[in-house]
Amino acid sequence: MSDQALARRNVMVLTAAQALGAAAPPIIISLGGIVGQMLTPDPTLVTLPVSLFNLGLAAGTIPAAIAMRYYGRRTGYLFGATIGLISGLIATFGIVSQSFLIFCLGTFVAGFYGSYVQSYRFAAADAATGEFKAKAISYVMIGGLAAAVIGPQLVIWTRDAFITAPFAGSFLSQAALAALAIPVLMMLKVPRERKPSKTDVREGRPLSEIIKSPRFILAVAAGMVSYALMSFVMTASPIAMVGCGFTVGEAAMGIQWHVLAMFGPSFFTGSLIARFGKETVTAVGLLLIAASSAVALAGLELGNFWSSLVLLGIGWNLSFIGATALVTECHTPEERGRVQGANDFLIFGTVAVASFSSGTLLSASGWEAINWMVFPIVTAIIIPLMIQARNKKKARQAIA
């Protein structure tokens, strides 16, 4: 099988795995605070399960990268899905036994599974070449579109499965999704997968050298800003909506449209990158994130909140996939495991901080202050992106 045919086959496998694995975060995010209210009398701790999920996601990126480097992506992903299965069972037991501590442990461990799921986008690009590399990343993200439907629907179907333990069925279904991902991931065929020798481990540049590269710094910064701003504003939006007098249902509807907007553009994001370039698409995505804040600042009507969330989702899709494609330019095949692990650790570490701080900042400074913060941060990344795009264009013209 040619590399390109193998890449296309793996994209289908990883898209299916993404649909199953990425359904866990909507379950945790939508129910973590509600279950927290059930299990702890301390109102300051009710969102801790969701924040711990994000912390587990950040903490798991480096161990996941090491596991996949030594044992290969396929074995690593199977191990990750097993972790996902266990995490769902732990969270379910926490609800049934009415233990807030055990439930929090379950959501924290689920974050480790998420660190494997997040790297599916890199695995899709491993065997791809040329323009299909960016498209492969984009296509796998389409699985998130299915996950955006699967997760909330499972919450609805299974939340009352156990009469004496509300929502335990939802987290049991999270475990079931991870179990279903195992046979799917067994179909993954990674080119030349083998355990590296000590010589292999030393191949390539040291990570300390790679992370000093201006190209790597810009790619990671773009990913950090796109994901952290999206998480920061998304976390605060439902609280702000309810504070403005809208119902919880209207807030939930806004988040659902936001999640669909996050993954819907994946059908064409790869083609846009192939046509206009990684830097340009990433910059446009960041501009849309800024536009979402402008819409939010324009008024406090329901339409403002919903439109802002949709723009935020589309902007995240373009900027995050573009930033991911930029990272693939920063390493050789021998270096990719540690580079991709470092990239995700920095991104999701920033997201964890944003998750912990969003509610506090909203309470202290207000909804408008959160949105005003977006503009200078976006500007600081767009300018170097455009400079890098211009330099690439000049280099191509010089070669021609």
TrEMBL record:
<feature type="transmembrane region" description="Helical">
    <location>
        <begin position="281"/>
        <end position="299"/>
    </location>
</feature>
<feature type="transmembrane region" description="Helical">
    <location>
        <begin position="46"/>
        <end position="68"/>
    </location>
</feature>
<feature type="transmembrane region" description="Helical">
    <location>
        <begin position="369"/>
        <end position="387"/>
    </location>
</feature>
<feature type="transmembrane region" description="Helical">
    <location>
        <begin position="12"/>
        <end position="34"/>
    </location>
</feature>
<feature type="transmembrane region" description="Helical">
    <location>
        <begin position="345"/>
        <end position="363"/>
    </location>
</feature>
<dbReference type="InterPro" id="IPR036259">
    <property type="entry name" value="MFS_trans_sf"/>
</dbReference>
<feature type="transmembrane region" description="Helical">
    <location>
        <begin position="216"/>
        <end position="235"/>
    </location>
</feature>
<dbReference type="InterPro" id="IPR011701">
    <property type="entry name" value="MFS"/>
</dbReference>
<keyword id="KW-0812">Transmembrane</keyword>
<dbReference type="Pfam" id="PF07690">
    <property type="entry name" value="MFS_1"/>
</dbReference>
<feature type="transmembrane region" description="Helical">
    <location>
        <begin position="305"/>
        <end position="325"/>
    </location>
</feature>
<protein>
    <submittedName>
        <fullName>MFS family permease</fullName>
    </submittedName>
</protein>
<feature type="transmembrane region" description="Helical">
    <location>
        <begin position="75"/>
        <end position="93"/>
    </location>
</feature>
<keyword id="KW-0472">Membrane</keyword>
<feature type="transmembrane region" description="Helical">
    <location>
        <begin position="99"/>
        <end position="116"/>
    </location>
</feature>
<keyword id="KW-1133">Transmembrane helix</keyword>
<feature type="transmembrane region" description="Helical">
    <location>
        <begin position="255"/>
        <end position="274"/>
    </location>
</feature>
<feature type="transmembrane region" description="Helical">
    <location>
        <begin position="163"/>
        <end position="188"/>
    </location>
</feature>
<dbReference type="InterPro" id="IPR020846">
    <property type="entry name" value="MFS_dom"/>
</dbReference>
<feature type="domain" description="Major facilitator superfamily (MFS) profile">
    <location>
        <begin position="215"/>
        <end position="400"/>
    </location>
</feature>
<feature type="transmembrane region" description="Helical">
    <location>
        <begin position="136"/>
        <end position="157"/>
    </location>
</feature>
<dbReference type="GO" id="GO:0022857">
    <property type="term" value="F:transmembrane transporter activity"/>
</dbReference>
